[in-house]
Automatic annotation (TrEMBL):
Record's keyword annotation contains Transferase: no
Protein name (database record): General odorant-binding protein 84a
Family: Belongs to the PBP/GOBP family.
One GO cellular component term: extracellular space
Primary location recorded for the protein, binned into one broad class: secreted
Signal peptide range: 1-23
Stored Pfam families: PBP_GOBP (PF01395)
Keywords, ordered alphabetically: Secreted, Signal
Length: 168
């Protein structure tokens, strides 16, 4: 529980300077053939992040919040319940897609890497990697075609299952 609160406090600190925006369809939300370029233009590439000893999820979240501004209450709600308070708002879902792509959990084609999920997830919850691999594997088969919705539903499945099993 202490680790979860530290995570929430860290997110609060990082996002406090960002303004709140209403959901609006952005050009980058639309499918485009340059998706791979979009995901590799980060200041630090996914490959460099993978090689680093300490992957910093907070850096990725701050970077993605530049494009898809998310209210702290959304992230706190997601951390607590596994879902956003308003599931019709596309912006936080695209924020999740951005985080997953830049962290190497999702490919530009929205295919999910359960091993990478298990490597990063301990920064959110203290759960054994092998348990996360099992849960994430069950969550990967997604019917959604929208990349933002698909990413959100993957994480929602993962978080809701973790909450159900471990946060009794």
């Amino acid at each position: 529980m202490n680790r979860n609160m530290n995570f929430v406090y860290a997110i609060t600190f990082a996002l406090i300077t960002f303004s709140v925006t209403e959901c609006a369809t952005k050009e980058k939300d639309k499918p485009n053939n340059n998706a791979k370029v979009e995901t590799t233009n980060a200041s630090v590439s996914v490959e460099e992040r993978d090689k680093s000893e300490e992957f910093n999820l907070m850096e990725v979240m701050v970077e993605c919040n530049d494009s898809f501004r998310v209210e702290m209450s959304y992230l706190a709600s997601f951390n607590k319940s596994g879902s956003f308070p308003d599931e019709t708002d596309k912006t936080p879902k695209c924020f999740m897609r951005c985080v997953l792509e830049k962290s190497g959990v999702a490919s530009p084609a929205s295919q999910f890497n359960v091993k990478r999920t298990a490597e990063i997830f301990p920064q959110i919850r203290d759960i054994a990697e092998e348990d996360i691999v099992k849960i994430a594997t069950e969550c990967t088969d997604r019917p959604e075609t929208c990349k933002c919705e698909r990413s959100y539903q993957y994480l929602k499945c993962l978080m809701e299952t973790v909450i159900e099993i471990y946060d009794v």
